[in-house]
Amino acid sequence: MSSDQVELKGQPESAVATADALLELRSVTKTFGGLTAVSGVNLLVRQREIVSVIGPNGAGKTTVFNLITGIYRPTSGEILLNGQSIVNQSPDRIVTKGITRTFQNIRLFNSMTVLENVLVGQHTRLKAGVLGSLFRPPQVVAEERKARERALELLSFFGPVLIERQDEYVSNLSYADRRRVEIARALAADPKLLLLDEPTAGMNEAETLDAVKYIRRLRDELGLTILLIEHKLAVTMGMSDHIAVLDYGQKIADGLPDEVRYDKRVIEAYLGRQAKEEADQRDAEAAAREEE
């Protein structure tokens, strides 16, 4: 791990943050009554990185997303975007600052078309008010035309299929295509940071591989920074710049994929204490062979 990479323990990441940091969590804690869902989590996400947050079920991953996007307010700690606190700001205000997200369970408007769903994502960027929408002066018509062009551009990012089905109800699409529409809707708000909550959940192997490709393209072609939650370790290990691991609301590891892959705390969190003991035994045997 490089000297300026997020360290695993000791001083908080804020001590080693660099000028290109986009998002930073400093000792963030969230409690619900007597339950601590997230405890003292530090996280640093740099510009144009793909960062994964992983961990067993109930580890606090989605809670972290809800804290970043303003659905929850932290009990303590700071959340900074471009060095400015976004704590206590409403979800819609955080969207205007440049953070959008998808959800573990797809949240589209099933009674609306594919195109209409993406247009909804642009509402924070449009200027027309109630009167403008009613009387439709030239500037409102022009704005609506640009919004439609932008929505079609975003749909085309995923290939011709969504363009061809733009006027169909989104409920008619396959699960994988609905997931793509949800991402297109999030992109419509012109984010700097895109949060993806289990973007390959429910997908088969071919669909998962395609999702990995377009997530990389979101970073490489659109210049986005991406923070994602993902249960498929092969997916996160294959495309992440670095990975943070949560267990029982605490961060237990944070580093490059290969560092996290062989971290004994991570092995224990995912596979149990027996797997950790087996890993320790293999390490001891390897060390003994080297001494022979």
Automatic annotation (TrEMBL):
InterPro entries in UniProt: AAA+_ATPase (IPR003593), ABC_AA/LPS_Transport (IPR051120), ABC_transporter-like_ATP-bd (IPR003439), BCA_ABC_TP_C (IPR032823), P-loop_NTPase (IPR027417)
Pfam families: ABC_tran, BCA_ABC_TP_C
UniProt keyword annotation of Nucleotide-binding present: yes
Chain ranges of the ABC transporter domain: 23-273
Gene Ontology biological-process entries: D-alanine transmembrane transport; L-alanine transport; L-isoleucine import across plasma membrane; L-valine import across plasma membrane
Keyword ATP-binding in annotation: yes
UniProt GO cellular component terms: plasma membrane
Any GO molecular function: L-valine transmembrane transporter activity
Keyword field: ATP-binding, Nucleotide-binding, Transport
UniProt protein name: ABC transporter ATP-binding protein
Source organism phylogeny: Bacteria, Bacillati, Chloroflexota, Ktedonobacteria, Ktedonobacterales
